[in-house]
Amino acid sequence: MLNGYINYLKFLDEKLEKFFKSQKPFIFCKKGCARCCKNAQFPYSVTEMKYLLSGLLTLDKDTLSVIEKNLENVLGQKNLFKGKKFRYDCPFLIDNQCSVYQYRGVVCRTFGLMTKYENDKLRAPFCTFQGLNYSNVLNLKKRTISPVKYKKLNVTEEPLGFNVSYKYLTDEDFEKAFCFKFGEKKPLIEWFIPSAASDKGSLKKRKSAQI
Ligand code: SF4
Ligand code: SF4
Which residue's alpha carbon is nearest to atom 4 within ligand 1? Predict the structure, then answer.
């Protein structure tokens, strides 16, 4: 089952690489900038989670201990599950780097691009409003492309939005095309609620990806 998903990820990565390349003048992502891995929900399907957990097999004991501690910290946050929009730092983030980078989910791969929805509405990444991606070309008040800023950049690339919403990228058309199912989707941390797991939350046991 993971083979279909892995093939899909190859397809997705190729597309995203082209998208990021075409947006180079407006992208400020760099190693160590991990704001997109913090204070969010991170939707994950069961298949994405299984693949992410398979990545744990490649990690050493110390790294696993840090992840386990991070998970405990997030799960121990008061009121974590009381509000619909609970937010947390991703437990797989260590020293501002993703410890399971190759195995990260769909949403993580699209961080930083501008999204274009089916109704043609554009949504800039949240970090635009922190002076990062697209902040050099968007009018932050009107949330539209600023002709003045764009002209100043003197580049040939156009700032564009892409159909990279999580809903679209995990649509059943992709499941059919690549012969797999995403399965149930929920915020990443919910896959680690101890009562929902038969092994009472042991990360070591979860390395076998029995979720
Ligand atoms: S899995 Fe990796 S890329 Fe995704 S939110 Fe967590 S640390 Fe960031
Ligand atoms: S998407 Fe934004 S927050 Fe994330 S690494 Fe890129 S610049 Fe930083």
Answer: 108
